[in-house]
Specification:
Strand 5, helix 7 and strand 6 form a beta-alpha-beta unit. The chain is built from 11 helices and 11 strands. It is 39% helix and 20% strand.
């Protein structure tokens, strides 16, 4: 039984949460504290400002306390919450999915106008999302383009279950299918668009990552092999047999990988047609077309 003495005012709980995270050296302590307190007390920022004397019961205080303890030892705030917003949509997370991050929205934004053109020409668009994880890329595209359908491929049963749950929660289940596949291994048919945010960190770099990433993101979604480029070689080599005429391949890349990834796809017969940077000014997305036109 939770001690009733743990009950606190909302204002005091916010102050204590911020102090604890700041004392632990957590980057963005104030923001993380606010997210955790609001979530576990079912309150809003407006309520914290207008009613700081509001009493929060002991059970909610205990839940917030447990969440703060998890954050102090390094667990990312969105993993504690169990979801993250991406492209205006909420995605549930699980142990074997990456958090969909704002940088990856650059990939969605790069592909959306091209999908719109395909739909205008053909009335439909079929998308393959390799390493789908939460399904964030594919589902964000489907949410924006009602005429599109998508297959999300992943080697993880946990990730596939999470992607299907997200599709259901977003009302997109009828246009999204999940397939267990090691890249193209179990994929059949052809697609208008192939997208992927593959693992692109070199094996040696993994140990240098922030603990929030190194200790909590799934390793096989991070580790791109000795030079970080293994997945790109597979995608470049095998995309042609799964791509319709006039189709495109779009991938997220690491900030220093533009030249290498461009070369891998060029050698496989895919010239780059678009290169985009993220909001931080880093190289982030490459779009390729078999015929050099998209």
């Amino acid at each position: 039984m939770i001690d009733p003495a743990l009950a606190s005012t909302l204002g005091a709980l916010h102050r204590d949460a911020r102090r604890r995270l700041e004392s632990a050296g957590i980057d963005g302590a104030a923001f993380d504290a606010r997210l955790l307190v609001e979530h576990f007390t079912a309150t809003t920022r407006a309520e914290a400002i207008s009613d700081p004397a509001r009493m929060i019961d002991a059970e909610a205080v205990a839940a917030a306390d447990a969440a703060l303890t998890r954050r102090i030892v390094g667990e990312p705030v969105h993993r504690i919450l169990g979801f993250r917003e991406f492209h205006g949509l909420r995605f549930s997370l699980s142990a074997e999915t990456l958090e969909p991050r704002p940088d990856t929205e650059t990939l969605v934004d790069a592909v959306l106008p091209l999908i719109a053109q395909m739909v205008e020409r053909h009335g439909a668009c079929r998308i393959l999302d390799l390493g789908t994880g939460t399904g964030a890329i594919a589902l964000a595209l489907l949410a924006a383009v009602p005429q599109a359908v998508a297959v999300g491929a992943d080697i993880s049963d946990d990730a596939l279950a999470t992607a299907l749950r997200n599709a259901r929660d977003l009302g997109l289940s009828e246009r999204f299918a999940a397939t267990k596949s090691d890249w193209f291994g179990a994929i059949s048919g052809q697609f208008d668009v192939i997208v992927s945010n593959p693992p692109y960190i070199s094996s040696a770099e993994i140990k240098t990552l922030q603990k929030e990433v190194r200790d909590f993101d799934p390793l096989r979604a991070l580790d791109g092999g000795a030079d970080g480029l293994d997945a790109y070689r597979v995608i470049a080599r095998e995309s042609a047999s799964h791509l319709k005429a006039g189709g495109i391949v779009a991938v997220e890349i690491g900030s220093s990988q533009n030249t290498d990834v461009t070369g891998i796809f060029h050698n496989a017969g895919f010239p780059v047609v678009t290169a985009l940077r993220d909001l931080g000014g880093n190289d982030r997305v490459l779009v390729f077309a078999r015929d050099g036109k998209a």
